[in-house]
Amino acid sequence: MAGVSRGTVDRVLNHRGGVSEETARKIQAIVDSVGYVPNSIGRTLAISRKNIKLGYLIFQGTTANPFFTEVLQGVEEKEAELKNFGVTVLKASSSIEDDTGAGQIELIDQLVEEGIQGLAITPFNHPAVAQKLKELAEKGIPVVTVNSDLEHSGRLCYVGSDYRKAGQTAGGLMGLFHPHGGTVGIISGSPLVVCHTEREQGFREILQERYPGVEIRAFAINQDDDFISYDVAGQMLKKYPELTGLYIVAGGVYGACRAVEAAGCQDRVAVISHDEAKTTLEMLKKGVLNATIGQEAVRQGSEPLQILYDYLTGGSVPEREMIYTRLDICIRENM
Questions:
Q1: What are phi and psi of 296, to 5 degrees?
Q2: Sign of the alpha-carbon dihedral angle for 97, 100, 106, 109
Q3: What is the H or E stretch that residue 241 is in?
Q4: In what order do the strands lie in the sheet with 182-188?
Q5: Does the domain at residues 163-294 carry the CATH identifier 3.30.365.10?
Q6: What is the SS3 assignment for 3-43?
Q7: Which residues contact 229 (CB under 8 A, 6 or more apart)?
Q8: pLDDT, tens digit only, all 335 positions of the chain
Q9: pTM over 0.85
């Protein structure tokens, strides 16, 4: 009807450019007049021939932080679903102790060399990593940040918790456990991970604003590692025997709780953490942990891949730049 080739119509319908404005308007007018809708079966077959490769890069091995085991469950579920559409997912993990971001950048380069067309990543809060992600976006490789966001990275969107609010929630819980005041310690994962620093900031803010009788007495870093967490928590409890609360900002929950058990102070120290890993729920059931705040880990694994797939196959841009997962307060009584 338009008097042009199928290739020209294809470029207009899929917004690929390379067609004059006059021709594009003519084709679009015909599309509107006849109510043309793409054949979904034909589109599925066409997409399946593209052999789309997506990358998913998280922090560390899953043995260090069991939260990422749940995230990977979501990745694998979505990978199995998208496999029928010719999609493969290349998974990788980077050490959380690399304070330069060089290791993560090297892994990104490897994934690009392997032909990924989109990347989901839990990024380091480092300018070099932000620049690398920006370069990917400029090359037409869309990026979705997951679990921890990174400003000025050119990413398509962020999927994960509102970490400031999560930290404020933890602060509110700690305040409720201390109606007459008390002293608490904080154990965080890494100063180079935005989700850790924002949780800590939210926690401090809410205590200062609403529970001034609860004093923060000690602080330590555990690199999301249970063994390090056990050591620093034990040292903290020994140095500050007056502690009545412990806030575990990120991973290492099991190790810190074991230290509380070893010190024999589980009946007087209120312990609050994040996520619903199996070992975390163990400590909750035992009563060593008082509350933990979940963030839909499986969804954080699956949704970024769906977003990248929709963007690459149909140009669908997420409605929101910040896609926040739900915050779930879990105590022993509602397990």
A1: 55, 65
A2: positive
A3: none
A4: 214-221, 182-188, 245-248, 270-274, 291-294, 328-330
A5: no
A6: CCCHHHHHHHHCCCCCCCHHHHHHHHHHHHHHCCCCCHHHH
A7: 187, 222, 248, 251, 252, 253, 254, 255, 256, 259
A8: 899 988 788 778 876 677 888 998 899 899 888 878 765 445 554 555 568 999 999 876 444 567 888 899 999 999 999 998 999 999 998 877 777 889 999 999 999 999 999 999 999 889 999 999 999 999 999 999 999 899 899 999 999 999 999 999 999 999 999 999 999 999 999 998 888 999 999 999 999 999 999 999 999 999 989 999 999 999 999 999 999 999 999 999 999 999 999 999 999 999 999 999 899 999 999 999 999 999 999 999 999 999 999 999 988 889 899 999 999 999 999 98
A9: no
CA distance 65 to 225: 7
Length of the chain: 335
* 239 CB neighbour count, 10 Å cutoff: 11
The span from the CA of 267 to the CA of 253, in Å, is: 17
**What residue segments make up the domains of the chain, in order of their start?**
1-35, 47-160+299-325, 163-294
In the chain, the largest separation of any two C-alpha atoms, in whole Å, equals 84
Q: In CATH terms, are 47-160+299-325 and 163-294 the same topology?
A: yes
Q: Which CATH number fits domain 47-160+299-325: 1.10.3720.10, 3.40.50.2300, 3.90.1150.10, 2.40.110.10?
A: 3.40.50.2300
Q: Give the amino acid at 233.
A: A
d(CA 82, CA 48): 9
Q: Kindly report the number of other CB atoms within 10 A of residue 141's CB atom.
A: 19
